[in-house]
Amino acid sequence: MSRQMEIDGELFRAVITFKQMVRNPAYQWDMSYGRRDLSIPSQIPSETETVTKVLGPYRRIGDAKSQMKQAMKNGYGYEKHVVGYHVERAIVTWEEVD
Fold this sequence. Notes:
Strand content: 35-45%
Radius of gyration: 20 Å
Structural class: mainly beta
Largest sheet: 3 strands, antiparallel
């Protein structure tokens, strides 16, 4: 899907930092479904590694904030392991190139 934007105005983008998901050492992948403890997840959030996700560009700051809030939740409506988030402003200017 493509969008048409005005380039001469301000642009906004949303930046979200998540904890990196790593393999859980307590998870036993080799057991059958009936014998496996389903309360133990296969991945857990890392305490040291992070991943940054950049969304945008958007013409309005409200669009950037709403997409940021939507991206911070998983499919069940719970918040992911977010470390930090903010909205950045970019002013685009054109210069003549020979």
